[in-house]
Amino acid sequence: MPKITKRVIDGLRPDSGGAEVFRWDGELRGFGVRIMPSGVGSYHIQYRTSHGRTRRMTIGRVGVLTPDEARRLAREKLAAAAKGSDPSAERRSVRKSMTVGELCDYYVAHAKGRIKDSTLAMDKSRIETHVKPLIGKLSVRSLTANDVERLKIDIIAGKTAKSRKNGRGGVTTGGGGVAARTLGMLGTILEYAKHPLNLIKENPVRGIKKPSEGKQRRFLSLEEIARLGAVIRQAETMSEHDSGISAIRFLLMTGLRRMEALALVREWIDVHTQCIRFPDTKSGAQLRPIGRDAIELLMSLPVRDGSPWVFPARRGKRHYIGLPKALKRLCTRAGLEGVTVHVLRHSFAAAAAEIGFSEFTIAGLLGHSVPGVTARYAHMPDSALVAAADRVCLRIKTALQGHYDNCAMPNIMGQT
To answer: Which of left, alpha, beta for 161 (phi over 0: left; psi -120 to 50: alpha)?
Structure first.
């Protein structure tokens, strides 16, 4: 029998009659690879327990583990079996007693590299903040739909709300939106309990009604933008942070998401083609057309020596993060209520709709995944989107300067 290598595995083909194809390793006795009729392959070990029973155990999937990695794991398990252990029984025992918290740790370890780092970071935060404190100690096998329903209710009620470490970034809140996103993540994690762990047959999250996430309905009218602009001009002569003032203007004039703006690196700005070349966004790598006036705003900002950020923090090497508090202070002075950072993005969308642009164009301006708009232009931004960005940006800039008409902006409920 030959040694199991990638070439040997690539040469194995599913049996046309529907039987499994099994090959043993010529170097390590008890180590083999199995190819299912579906074409899925997995590595196995076979050994005898101290009671003389023959056991066969899967140690990994072909494609996830290399043959050498699988062989090392097999050698460890077979050595343990030779000393009287029963690796298969031990695995079943561990799985049977696995808690929700342990399953979450398993998910984090196996999801790394398969989903975006930013998404995994958010998942880890929700796990540590909401899932583990509320149901982390429950057994996965014993978890019921009632447990999940209580988790939802507790998050909505704010039982896991708390101040963040070091006093940075406000507080961890509850509410329907947080509960809905946490349930969505938990449902994904529990799919791992179904396969490959085979701990449960049904996912207890499925069928639980998610609470409303409270879609954003607030936006600033042109008159409100003018009031905010007047306060911004006053704040420039006071102690308000320059990065905060500039970031508010920039977000209104572009419709970018908060962290797309605050974590903006200067080298991503393409002045010539009038766009930002994001290496990664919520929708993946992307070109984002922005208005000419927004480009001029960026180019007018001072450059701090050694800092790559467009909006640097006042102290240290990080980018500016105090935008929510700065916006709240300015809106209080302007007599504006219910204004969050995300409202600035909706205000840009409302201005675009008031001009007469279609939802399709507005989605492209906001960076949504729209086939034919954001995905197709890999090297150059769409000229139609650039022209649209120019018009919306100019309208917002004019309102910030105090010049506006009395047309009310329509509410754009679908754009986020």
So the answer is: beta
pTM: 0.58
* pLDDT score at 169: 45
Distances (CA, A) of 21 to 25, 146, 344: 13, 43, 60
What mean pLDDT comes out for the span 219-231? 95
CA distances from 235 to 90, 126, 239, 241, 262 (A): 66, 36, 7, 9, 19
The pLDDT value recorded for residue 301 is 93
The β-bridge partners of 288 are 276
Does position 164 have pLDDT exceeding 80, yes or no? no
Give the pairing of strands 31-35 and 269-270.
Answer: unpaired
Per-residue pLDDT of 340-362, as tens digits, reads: 999 999 999 999 999 999 988 99
Domain residue extents for the chain = 6-85, 100-194, 222-400
Tokens of 111: 């999801």
Q: How far apart are CA 113 and CA 150, in angstroms?
A: 32
Which architecture does CATH list for 6-85? Answer: 2-Layer Sandwich (3.30)
Separation of alpha carbons 138 and 210, rounded Å: 21
Give residue 173's pLDDT. Answer: 66
| The pLDDT of residue 406 | 47
pLDDT (tens digit per residue) in 372-382: 544 444 467 78
* Section 61-77 average pLDDT: 92
**By the 8 A CB rule, do 142 and 115 touch?**
no
Who contacts 258 (Cβ-Cβ below 8 Å, separation ≥6)? 251, 323, 341, 342
Longest dimension (CA), the chain: 88
Alpha carbon distance 281, 287 (integer Å): 10
Winning range, highest mean pLDDT, from 216-220, 266-270, 367-371:
266-270
Spell out the CATH class of 100-194: mainly alpha
Q: Which CATH number is correct for 222-400, 1.10.443.10, 1.10.10.10, 3.40.50.300, 3.40.50.620?
A: 1.10.443.10
Residue 325: the pLDDT is 92
* Whether 188 contacts 201, CB under 8 Å: no
